[in-house]
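# step 3/5: fold
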Amino acid sequence: MFKQYKGGSYKVFSESDMKEIHEASVYLLENVGIQVHNKRAMQIFADNGATTDKENKIVKIPRGMLEDAVDSAPSKVVLCGREEKNDLVLEGTNVYLGTGGTALNTLDIDTGKKRPTEVRDVAGYAKMTDALDNVAFFLINCYAGDVSIEDEDVNRFFHSFANTSKHVMGGIYTMDGMMSVIEMAEEIAGGKEKLKDRPFVSFITLIMSPLKMENTYSDFLIEIAKRGLPVTTPAEPLAGATSPVTMAGTVTINNAESLAGLVLAQLVNKGTPTIYGSVASTINMQSGTYLAGCIESALINVGCAQMAQYYKVPIYGTGGMSDSKTVDAQAGYESANTAMIVALSGCNYIHDAFGIIEFCTTLSYEKMVIDNDSVGMALRAVEGVETNENTIARDVIAEVGPGGHFLDHKHTFENVRKEFYIPTHADRSQRSVWEAEGSKDSYTRANEEVKRILKEHKTLGFSEDMEKSLRSKFKNIK
């Protein structure tokens, strides 16, 4: 099992605030409703007692239906890796951070220039995820521009499964593609029931803001729920554009939207492992464009994490992004600050925390290495300060006494690694040593580490027979 960290020390809402947001969300779902563009979803809601207006495509979800769905949704969702050491337990305030973004571009590791992402990058970023110790999961973070949309799903998921044994989550583009991915995962797992028992794959189905269920994503949600596979239902309101400019208002609409998706999943198949979700952010009021690295985005996601905790359901949230165009100081401070406070809130599954720049449109291999240290520091902050007889160390202090030192004391050796986060990338040497080693900056060292990982890191991969079988069955794999 992947190491668990317990968050929850940072909050933006009181208990009464959360109750007020809950009641506002209930009011919106009951009295305003949500626009549902999928006929099957409309019928499912109607058959279970929701008020439906088919002409205007409005579904009004009663309080009782919402409460029943929240009660039937599991409070604990286990997202498995292909190896048990990578299993994630989404529950309470457990915190994990991973990749995400579905970027269209990457910074090339040889030229440093931006280029379109390809299948090789899906494989490359999956391998980076496998190698870096603080990346808990691989949410497929790029779009393979060198295959057709009909072949996108199979290629993205195949090369993800092949290059990391950590949990793989992804969005999907076509129904045929999704069904092929599920079939592929079932074959790798050894059958439908084995995949359901140990789901090493999960899916994203977006709810649109404001208050809208789109046709295709609703179809995906229904089919995934039928099979009992893990699914997240995030909304992506943008404060000041598709949601109120106030952060509490954005949390409220996100709450109503994500809960609507959770209700549909539970109506299709009670007990479906459903993850409440937020990809909320803001717009730049000076230009009207999307922002990813702003602190307000993190505050909204903290609020959504608290609402998920209020309902006792797992949460998929966002943190660690940057709007910088390159891997520079701005990329560092935006990513570090947003990842830190969302992690401290106890958000369970924090995606987009590695490698993302330029409004979520561009990835950097080097930034993944740098973010691995940044996230390691955030997780150390989440862990907090353990206080007991051993850590207070009264008797050790008394034994060393005035004028002594603790460097060679047994207590230091026994506790240093669990007390201190030891970065794997940051340079903490003296200047003379740094200069003697070539005066390499953070980006240069990260580039060298990326090339080493891509060349040397060994992944679980597939047996020869399994790879042959998958490629024979899914001939569109590149």
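# step 4/5: annotate
Residues 319 and 338 are 5 Å apart (CA to CA).
# step 5/5: archive (pending)
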